[in-house]
Amino acid sequence: MRFVLMLALAACGGSKQPAIVGNTGAAGAEKGPGVTALLAVIPEGDGCALARLEGDDPPIVIAVVKDPCFGARIARWSDATKVLLWFDPQLVEGGGFFSQGYPPALRPVEEQGGSGAMYEITLATGRARRLAPFPAPDPLEFLGVVDGSIYGFTTHPMPDAKGVVDYLGTKLDFTQIREGEPAAAVAYREVNGAWELAKVTDTTTGWDYAMGYMAIDLASKAAPESETLVSGRTEPIEIAETAIVKALAPLAPVPPTSEPYDRWYTAVPGKYPVYAWMVTGEFTYATGLLAWRDERGEVVPLPKLDASASDIVAITPFGADYILVTNTRTGTHPRVYNIVGRHLVLASDQARAAMPWSESGTLGN
């Protein structure tokens, strides 16, 4: 028996209005870009800081807001001058794989979600502007930037809809629905501190391949966002070298026949490969059991990852020489590894929503 839990849901408590408590954004402008740097949020007093992390250096704080860091998500501007910081009540740390014979997950599921507050933060100055509450009756599902404008996306369930119906002034055609339940995908645009309805279209929810809010093309055009950058869902690559398969076998958490779809795959191909024990249900996910060949050529687990084969992780390339390993979706427990030199570069158990720092707003150097 197995059960994959990708995240826990928690209700937002209260209607407290957090306030901005200050920033040290000027410090962020003094440090040049580095391939191993992260943009992340970390606890700061009774609030949360957007910060730059690099190696063993102290964090460079860009801005601080009076919100707990739970459910933090970061979305970039395409020109990397600003970011959106959003505390999603539905996104908390956790997400594990549970199956007979597997070790316990090392990263427990949290019980408290985010505040729901949203901020626009200018990286050069640390100025944080709080956005108005999302206006839709349904929970905000995705916040992103398209062509310099902020958009919020949600879906409105319409399980009893049949034929052509009207929602928010748009005719939605559900005559061809074959899978899932009818719903409206809705996008709002932030204009001069307020939200304006931008687009409504028909969609479906309730099954694995439902489009949801992604039925609106604007969502796919949004700049990179932390929750989607650090996804544990992956496409497995078979390991071609028989010697590597044999060397990895003793590290497996279960015998090969107990879970026939779970096995070692190549997670990072190339001259300096990284191997991951992956689990498969409806989709395939990388776990916290990762290995590489050390300087002697022996296959060994990645050092100080502090995760198990029951933790679902995301593996994000950092140019050609580095990888970022985090908890899936939340970006917590980030680890940056040099896969050429085979050593740990950066580790944090406080950071959340971690994503590669880049002056250009893209992954890599």
Approximately how much beta-strand content do the residues carry?
Answer: 35-45%
With strands numbered from the N-terminus, the spatial order across the biggest sheet is 2-5-4-3-25
Alpha plus pi helix count: 4
Structural class: mainly beta
Shape by Cα distribution: globular
Helical proportion?
Answer: under 10%
Radius of gyration: 21 Å
Q: Give, in order, the helices and strands.
A: EEHEEEEEEEEEEEEEEHHHEEEEEEEEE
Average pLDDT rating: 85
Annotation, overall tally of beta strands: 25
Distance between the termini: 43 Å
Main sheet summary: 5 strands, antiparallel
Ranges with pLDDT <50 over ≥5 residues? 3-34, 359-365
Outline the structure in words:
This protein is mainly beta. Among the domains are: 148-220, no CATH class; 242-356, no CATH class. Helices cover 5% and strands 40% of the residues. It contains four helices and 25 strands. The strands form seven sheets. The chain has a five-stranded antiparallel β-sheet. The protein has a four-stranded antiparallel β-sheet with strand order 6-7-9-10, with no helix packed on it. Strand 9 (118-122) and strand 10 (128-130) form a beta hairpin. The longest helix has 7 residues, at 242-248. The N and C termini lie far apart (43 Å). Residues 3-34 and 359-365 have low confidence and may be disordered.
Task: Summarize the model shown.
It contains 4 helices and 25 strands. The protein has 365 residues and is mainly beta.
